[in-house]
Structures
1.
Amino acid sequence: MAAQDFLTITRLGWAVAIILIGLVVRFFQRLHYHRTLVKGLPGPPHSYLWGSLISMNETLRTQPKRAAPQTFATILKEKYDLPDCFYLDLWPFGPMTMMIMDADVMGQVTVKQSFPKAVEVGTFMRTVSGPGDLVASEGATWKKWRATFNPGFAANHLISLVPLMVDQCLVFCDVLTKRAGNNDLFRMESDTTRLTVDIIGKIVLDADLNSQRAPNPLVDALMQQIRLVGTGAIFNPIEAIDWPYRWARQAYNKWIMDRYIGARLEERWATREARGKSRTVIDLAMDTYVKENKASDSGAANNKRLDSEFKQAAISNMKTFIFAGHDTTSSTICYCYYYLSKDPARLAKIRAEHDTVFGPDPDAVADQLRHDGHLLNKLEYTLAVIREVLRLQPPASTLRTGPPGSFATDPTTGQRLPTEHFMMWCVDVGLHRNPKYWDSPHVFRPERFLKDDSKSDTSANFTSNPAWVGFSKGPRNCIGQELAVLETKVILAMTLRKFEFQAAFDELVKLRGDGSGYPSDFEGIQTQFGEEAYQIQMGAAKPREGMPCRIRLIR
Ligand code: HEM
């Protein structure tokens, strides 16, 4: 080898070595920085090298493999006797996290100050929606869209939507009747998902998606997108390997969804004048577009085609509404069936309420609700059941981030809890199962939400009770909460006296390989909080395996 070549190789070797040393030094600098962030703060046993990862791992080993990450907060707290707010150092595999299960502290970061959403929310929502969506955006963009869509979720408008919910629920009853006739073993969550997506499709796009009866390209792409979404908050090793496949599939699904909704937007835009005023979500977005363009006198308001920037933001928001508006509600309906089926006395009680309000014939409910949606206001016990289900199995929570120099304060000790640099996880399921606020917190007892309940916990009123946060609180609370409750009431009123639901986790193995896309685990720990139907993360937190069940027609 010539001396010249030797020198070149030696220089190259030195250069590589210097880069590697630089990377190692940088790694240890960052390690030190993250490890000292949580120094002296409450949390599970912590190691300088591994942060909280060893404690996390020990805790996860005691839980079902795919249990939803939000459920670990309570388990960690109990295992290590932690306070209601504690810190997790998951670097470099996850964000530095502050777990909040105290009602007062949660109120400080969502109501009193309303801290910005964590970056993980944007990462998560980008897969499903896109730039400018209501869930992840902040500041003026969020304000504009929230004000735009609020009228679509006003109570008086929602009542006018009851007939369309009834129509979709009749299709659902047909589907269930066939299932009962065939004695099918099936995943209830697949059916409730198609029901709720058809309802929200009508409310958002004024479109008959009809996914309960036939495949629909928008719905199919959305369902697959939800299955491909990363958890964002917790490291999943598979996501580090299969990203090329995920990326390509996600890009394709996005293209299908954007094309579908884009065409709907153009169609609505072209027929806007003829149609007149409407509070459908898609039309509300266009009202804002017209208002903005008239104000700026750009002339775009009279153009035949929509401006591309508006179109992109509108598509993002339509997708957000379709996603946020079906997934959570579908999970809630499944859990209502599940808890009631395990509690014959309470099932009898809710059925008795439906007898009182609608009379003995369950098939008459549809017509009665079409004529008078206000009958739903009489379903006090049904509402208590929904609140109790959302207490035990809340499908969503809020993730915030602390602005520079920000703190929260522990209400009992007065200790200042740093929030800057942390993802603040307001863990509803942790708060909802916290014995400080709830009597027998793991027990299904809807009566706790009735005004005259002798054992009423902090307060029976679910909006003013700071320990009930199923729809989050403060300015970033759920815009669709009234709709979700109304819809669930309609569905329970129309189905509970017609069908007998029976969970069938013991038959799970027969559903193996059915192509439904639910992850399966037949080995290891199979229950959490004593329930077979523990939550897994698939978009929202939802019942494991899609709630396998059988159904029987009663009348
Ligand atoms: C049982 C059903 C539902 C539950 C438990 C639920 C829960 C929540 C929660 C916890 C949040 C706060 C999320 C965060 O801070 O990141 C939220 C926000 C939101 N929800 Fe829901 N939701 C439900 C149904 C719906 C429905 C039916 C819609 C649509 C019509 C909807 C649309 C939204 C939107 C757009 C936001 C973002 C609001 C904002 O930031 O201004 N949700 N929901």
2.
Amino acid sequence: MSHFKSLTLEWSEDRLKMIDQRKLPTAEEYVECRNHEEVYVAIREMIVRGAPAIGATAAFGYLLGAKEVLDASDEVLLDHMTTVKKRLSESRPTAVNLFWALDRMENALNSNWGLERKKLIESLERAALSIAKEDIEINKSLGRNGATVVRDGDGILTHCNAGALATVDYGTALGVMRAAVEQGKRIKIFADETRPYLQGARLTAWELIKSGIDVTLICDNMAGWVMKKGFIDLVLVGADRIAANGDAANKIGTYSVAILAQRHGIPFYIAAPLSTVDLTTASGEEIPIEERSHREITHIGNQQIAPEGVRCLNPAFDVTPSSLITGIITEKGIARPPYDVSLRGMFE
Ligand SMILES: CSC[C@@H](O)[C@@H](O)C(=O)COP(=O)(O)O
């Protein structure tokens, strides 16, 4: 049986280990999942988060689900796998990579059906490992493609965390930055803190410092002023789901950044693998937006910062219309408007 390890995930035989992203940057702790229910909880509780990382995690969750009924009859196994897929797909609604990875695992089950049980499980393990390993290669390719729009000396604004932690490794938007740095370009990254969950402050700042990439942390409400002062030449963010017309769902606050970029004449790029593109979703209107606990707004950690009982609204994502997007950087190249044509072409 194979062993796989990246910054975000480690797979060995009967368990999936992941860095606990809730605890970063003050503690580097790990959580182990030994069954599909623990994987469901890890995704829902954001121990692991970020669209491609959620997809790969769910794939291993599916594999763990199959191992739970190793000796059961064919009927019981099939029933169980339907339940496992449904449960994992209920963990978070917006990132389409979750559904993409589960479909891929289900296809692996169907196409290897008939093999003796041990061989069937091995084929599922190979499928999950392929998803994880491919993700890293895809990020490196999209990183190289994206680096062509980064110039030496650029100031780059990013939002949330589209880094190694949001993927299996290397990152999407941060993958573009890594590739630019690998090419010898000197860049300065400005990371929005990303209220309310603070992925920018906690994860992006941690990751970039760890990688020796120049980073300055700003509060979300400083982005406009920082652009006005001329510090930003480019905006690079990730995505959780991209509709067929190029509308892109990403962490709440991305839409505001895109409007600010347009006002200041700054190019705004999305960096995401094609597994984030959902051609079955016609436009951003159809993308389900997760509403998360209001405690994320009323508290920072255990510290209450708002009056008891105040009404809150906490959509975890917003949708940036394609009209505000300069280009969508993928492993197949950079899609440009009209996106319904350019994105579709990348699947041919
Ligand atoms: C590369 S994953 C998508 C990202 O761009 C990221 O910004 C994001 O929105 C992740 O959301 P999260 O709620 O942390 O899972």
